[in-house]
Protein backbone atom coordinates (compact mmCIF):
# COMPACT_ATOMS: atom_id res chain seq x y z
CA UNK A 1 0.00 0.00 0.00
CA UNK A 2 1.22 3.47 -0.79
CA UNK A 3 2.82 4.99 2.30
CA UNK A 4 4.17 8.54 2.16
CA UNK A 5 7.32 8.25 4.26
CA UNK A 6 8.70 11.40 5.93
CA UNK A 7 11.41 13.17 3.98
CA UNK A 8 10.02 12.10 0.60
CA UNK A 9 8.50 14.44 -1.98
CA UNK A 10 5.21 12.51 -1.69
CA UNK A 11 5.03 13.10 2.06
CA UNK A 12 5.77 16.79 1.63
CA UNK A 13 3.12 17.16 -1.07
CA UNK A 14 0.43 15.33 0.90
CA UNK A 15 1.31 17.29 4.04
CA UNK A 16 1.03 20.59 2.13
CA UNK A 17 -2.38 19.44 0.85
CA UNK A 18 -3.47 18.59 4.41
CA UNK A 19 -3.92 14.91 3.56
CA UNK A 20 -1.50 13.39 6.11
CA UNK A 21 -3.80 11.98 8.82
CA UNK A 22 -1.21 10.98 11.40
CA UNK A 23 2.45 11.23 12.26
CA UNK A 24 2.28 8.19 14.54
CA UNK A 25 5.22 6.39 12.96
CA UNK A 26 4.00 3.01 14.24
CA UNK A 27 1.24 3.30 11.63
CA UNK A 28 3.68 3.80 8.74
CA UNK A 29 3.82 0.05 8.08
CA UNK A 30 2.48 -0.13 4.49
CA UNK A 31 0.23 -3.02 5.50
CA UNK A 32 -2.40 -2.37 8.14
CA UNK A 33 -2.87 1.39 8.40
CA UNK A 34 -3.74 4.15 5.95
CA UNK A 35 -1.87 7.30 6.99
CA UNK A 36 -3.12 9.72 4.36
CA UNK A 37 -6.48 10.76 2.96
CA UNK A 38 -6.76 9.25 -0.52
CA UNK A 39 -8.59 11.08 -3.28
CA UNK A 40 -11.93 9.66 -4.47
CA UNK A 41 -12.30 7.10 -1.66
CA UNK A 42 -12.20 6.80 2.11
CA UNK A 43 -9.17 5.42 3.97
CA UNK A 44 -11.34 2.43 4.92
CA UNK A 45 -12.12 1.74 1.25
CA UNK A 46 -8.42 1.90 0.38
CA UNK A 47 -7.52 -0.52 3.18
CA UNK A 48 -10.30 -2.94 2.24
CA UNK A 49 -9.26 -2.84 -1.42
CA UNK A 50 -5.64 -3.47 -0.44
CA UNK A 51 -6.67 -6.40 1.76
CA UNK A 52 -8.96 -7.82 -0.95
CA UNK A 53 -6.13 -7.62 -3.53
CA UNK A 54 -3.76 -9.42 -1.14
CA UNK A 55 -6.30 -12.14 -0.37
CA UNK A 56 -6.87 -12.71 -4.09
CA UNK A 57 -3.18 -12.62 -5.01
CA UNK A 58 -2.24 -15.10 -2.25
CA UNK A 59 -5.13 -17.54 -2.73
CA UNK A 60 -3.65 -21.01 -3.06
CA UNK A 61 -4.96 -21.49 -6.60
CA UNK A 62 -3.45 -18.21 -7.72
CA UNK A 63 -0.13 -18.98 -6.03
CA UNK A 64 0.21 -22.30 -7.84
CA UNK A 65 -1.01 -20.93 -11.15
CA UNK A 66 1.44 -18.04 -11.00
CA UNK A 67 4.43 -20.03 -9.78
CA UNK A 68 4.15 -22.93 -12.18
CA UNK A 69 4.24 -20.47 -15.10
CA UNK A 70 7.25 -18.75 -13.59
CA UNK A 71 10.86 -19.33 -14.55
CA UNK A 72 12.11 -18.52 -11.07
CA UNK A 73 13.27 -21.11 -8.58
CA UNK A 74 10.21 -22.74 -7.01
CA UNK A 75 12.26 -23.85 -4.02
CA UNK A 76 12.59 -20.16 -3.13
CA UNK A 77 9.33 -18.60 -4.24
CA UNK A 78 6.81 -21.30 -3.31
CA UNK A 79 7.64 -21.35 0.44
CA UNK A 80 7.59 -17.54 0.61
CA UNK A 81 4.17 -17.37 -1.04
CA UNK A 82 2.77 -20.12 1.17
CA UNK A 83 4.06 -18.44 4.32
CA UNK A 84 2.47 -15.17 3.28
CA UNK A 85 -0.80 -17.02 2.55
CA UNK A 86 -0.78 -18.53 6.05
CA UNK A 87 0.06 -15.20 7.69
CA UNK A 88 -2.83 -13.49 5.90
CA UNK A 89 -5.20 -16.19 7.15
CA UNK A 90 -3.79 -15.95 10.68
CA UNK A 91 -4.10 -12.17 10.65
CA UNK A 92 -7.77 -12.43 9.66
CA UNK A 93 -8.55 -14.93 12.40
CA UNK A 94 -7.02 -13.25 15.42
CA UNK A 95 -9.88 -13.30 17.86
CA UNK A 96 -9.06 -10.35 20.10
CA UNK A 97 -9.08 -7.75 17.33
CA UNK A 98 -5.31 -7.27 17.28
CA UNK A 99 -3.60 -7.52 13.94
CA UNK A 100 -0.42 -9.50 13.42
CA UNK A 101 1.46 -6.27 12.71
CA UNK A 102 0.37 -4.87 16.09
CA UNK A 103 1.85 -7.68 18.16
CA UNK A 104 5.05 -6.67 19.91
CA UNK A 105 7.08 -9.84 20.04
CA UNK A 106 9.95 -9.93 22.50
CA UNK A 107 8.67 -7.35 24.97
CA UNK A 108 6.89 -8.23 28.20
CA UNK A 109 3.15 -7.34 28.18
CA UNK A 110 3.81 -4.44 30.59
CA UNK A 111 5.86 -2.61 27.94
CA UNK A 112 4.07 -0.06 25.75
CA UNK A 113 5.10 2.03 22.76
CA UNK A 114 4.04 5.65 23.11
CA UNK A 115 3.12 8.05 20.28
CA UNK A 116 6.79 8.97 19.80
CA UNK A 117 7.77 5.28 19.41
CA UNK A 118 9.48 5.20 22.78
CA UNK A 119 9.15 1.93 24.68
CA UNK A 120 8.06 2.45 28.27
CA UNK A 121 7.10 0.09 31.03
Describe the protein's topology:
Elements: H1 9-16, H2 43-57, H3 60-69, H4 74-93, E1 112-113, E2 119-120
Antiparallel strand pairs: 1-2
Helix pairs in contact: 3-4
How would you sum up this structure, described in words?
- The longest helix is centred in the last third of the chain and has 20 residues, at 74-93.
- The protein has one domain (9-120).
- The chain has helices spanning 9-16, 43-57, 60-69, 74-93, and strands at 112-113, 119-120.
- Helices cover 44% and strands 3% of the residues.
- With 121 residues, the chain is mainly α.
- α3 runs antiparallel to α4 (74-93).
- It has 4 helices and 2 strands, in the order ααααββ.
- Strands 1-2 form a two-stranded antiparallel sheet.
Short characterization:
With 121 residues, this protein is mainly α. It is 44% helix and 3% strand.
Helix content: 40-55%
List segments where confidence is low: pLDDT < 50 over at least 5 consecutive residues: 104-111, 117-121
User: What is the N-to-C succession of helices and strands?
Assistant: HHHHEE
Overall mean pLDDT score?
A: 80
- The helix-and-strand class reads mainly alpha
Strand order of the largest sheet: 1-2
> Please, how many domains?
1
Query: How many helix segments?
Result: 4
Amino acid sequence: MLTPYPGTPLFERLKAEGRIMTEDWMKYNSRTDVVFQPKNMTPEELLEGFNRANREFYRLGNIFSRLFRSRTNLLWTLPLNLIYHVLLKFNQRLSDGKRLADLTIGFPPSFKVDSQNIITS
